[in-house]
Amino acid sequence: MVESSPPLLHNYAELLRQSGVSFAVQGNDHQNEVMEECELPLIDLSNLRSDYEEERMACAQAICRASSEWGFFQVVNHGISLEILRKMRREQVKLFKGPFEKKANCGLLNNSYRWGNPAATCPKQFSWSEAFHIPLTKMSEEACFGEFNSLREVMVEYAAAMQELARLLAGVLVMNLGHQKGFFEEICDESTCFLRLNRYPSCPLSPEIFGLVPHTDSDFLTILHQDQVGGLQLMKDSEWVAVKPNQDALIVNIGDLFQAWSNDVYKSVEHKVMPNWKVERYSIAYFLCPSYDSLIGSCKEPSIYRKFTFGEYRRQIQEDVRMRGHKVGLPRFLLNVQH
C-alpha cells in the first residue's frame, strides 16, 4: 500500500530524542483528557439582508460584539451553497489521499505543500498536520494542478464565494468604527489572499501534541470551514476552551491586522488545533490579506501601534520564528515599548 501520510511520527520522535525525552504510543484503552466544549456566538447573516433596519443593525452589532469579546464567531445563512462546500471537501480529501512522495516532490499546486514544522527545534513547536497553502493567483494556472483539475474548478468557485463573504464581514466591522466599507476593496484582492487546505491525521502519541501550534492569524480575518471532528481551541479569559464543531456554520476569526487597525477594538485571539487519536480531521481556511506594501495604520488616534506595512509585518514574524522559534506578532509594533 502506498503511504499517503507524511512521516510525522519519525520526525516527532527525532525531536524528542534530541530533547532527551521518551514517548509512548497510545493504546486502544487510552482516553484523551476531555475539555468542556463552548459554543461560539452564532450569527444568522440573513438578517443583514432584512427589510427591517433594526434587524440589520442588530446583526451588525452582534458581529462587532463577538469580534471584540471573543475574536471568534460562527455564521449561518452566509450565502455559500452547501453543494460548493461539499464539493470542496470531496476534492480536498482526494488530494490528501494521494501518495506522500507525490504531494511533497512533484511541484503539485506550485510547491504549496507543507507538513509538520521544518523549523521546529523542540517538540512544542511541532505540528501534527499537513497542508496546502495556495495563493488565489495560482488557481487559474492549470499546469499547477496536474491531474487535480477538478479541484481547481471547485476551488476557483469556492474562493470567489469566500472572498465575497470576507468583504461583507470586513465591511460591517469597518463601518462600525466610522469608516467606509470600501476600504478593504482597495487593498485586498485575489493577488494577496490565499486558501490553506488542512489535514490532521489521527495521532497515536501523547494528547499534549499539537495539530497546529498556538498562534494568532497574521491577516485581517479568516473564514474556516471545518468538519465534525473538532479539535479547534481558543484562548478565552486566559484559559483554553474547546470549540464545539458545527457543520452547518462557518467560523470567522479576527487577525492581527484588524486588531492593529481597530486600535485593539477587535481582538486577534490565540488559537490552536489538537489532533484526535482515533480519526483524522479536515478544514479549509480562507485568509483575507492586503498587498505587501499596504500601510496598516490605526482607524483613530492616538494609535496604540506604530504604522507598518504587511510586508514588514511578515518579515518580522519570519525573523522572530528563525531567531526565537516562535512568532511575537503585534507586541513588536506597540508604540513606546522597548524590545
UniProtKB/TrEMBL annotation:
It is an enzyme of class 1 (oxidoreductase). Its EC number is 1.14.11.13. Keywords: Dioxygenase, Iron, Metal-binding, Oxidoreductase. Residues 189-290 form the Fe2OG dioxygenase domain. The keyword Metal-binding applies. It catalyses: gibberellin A1 + 2-oxoglutarate + O2 = gibberellin A8 + succinate + CO2. Belongs to the iron/ascorbate-dependent oxidoreductase family. GA2OX subfamily. This is gibberellin 2beta-dioxygenase. GO terms for molecular function: gibberellin 2-beta-dioxygenase activity; metal ion binding. Pfam families: 2OG-FeII_Oxy, DIOX_N. InterPro entries: DIOX_N, IPNS-like_FE2OG_OXY, IPNS-like_sf, Iron_ascorbate_oxido_reductase, Oxoglu/Fe-dep_dioxygenase_dom. GO terms for biological process: gibberellin metabolic process.
